[in-house]
Amino acid sequence: MTANCPEVPSLIPSKEEEVQQARSYLRERFIRALLAMNGRTANFRMYENTNVSAVFGSCDREFVNIYVKSLDTPLGSIPDALLRTNDIECISINEIDPSA
User: Fold this and answer.
1) Quick one: three-class SS letters along 12-41?
2) What is the C-alpha to C-alpha distance for residues 74 and 52, in angstroms, rounded to an integer?
3) What is the pLDDT of residue 94?
4) 3-state DSSP assignment of residue 47
5) What is the pLDDT at residue 2?
6) What was the pLDDT predicted at 16?
7) Is 55 exposed, middle or buried (0-12, 13-18, 19+ CB in 10 A)?
8) What integer pLDDT is reported at residue 14 of this predicted model?
9) CB-based contacts of 26: which residues, under 8 Å, 6+ apart?
10) What is the pLDDT, as a whole number, of residue 12?
11) What is the mean pLDDT of each run of 10 residues along the chain (100 residues)?
């Protein structure tokens, strides 16, 4: 005969919960990084070694496009632009506070 005992919740997180917590942590860090980059001057090394600089604005939800202001290119300056992340090889921003 088995007793009708209520199930006791496990104190050990399941693998799924661990994955969810890790994703949540990484998502928060990514958003904090984007906030720290907002308004900072960024240097972009583009496809085929083209170097441009601009003020970092924001990005879309999928991180496919980056909105920048005052884009300086070898051919001139553009007040507002979208850069495709597929065309970017490297982004460098020197003014970010690592404690942010």
Assistant:
1) CCCHHHHHHHHHHHHHHHHHHHHHHHCCCE
2) 7
3) 85
4) helix
5) 56
6) 87
7) middle
8) 83
9) none
10) 67
11) 62 82 92 91 94 95 95 96 96 76
Q: Which residue has the tokens 């690592």?
A: 98
Structure tokens at 39: 């308004």
3-state secondary structure of 49: helix
Maximum alpha-carbon separation in the chain: 84
CB 61 within 8 A of CB 45: no
Task: Give the whole-angstrom CA distance, residue 28 versus residue 39.
Answer: 19
**Domains in the chain, start-ordered, CATH in brackets?**
38-93 (2.30.30.100)
Quick one: pLDDT at residue 15?
A: 86
Q: Which two tokens stand for residue 52?
A: 């441009």
Distance linking the first and last C-alpha atoms of the chain: 59
Which residues on adjacent β-strands are paired with residue 65? 84
pTM (two decimals): 0.73
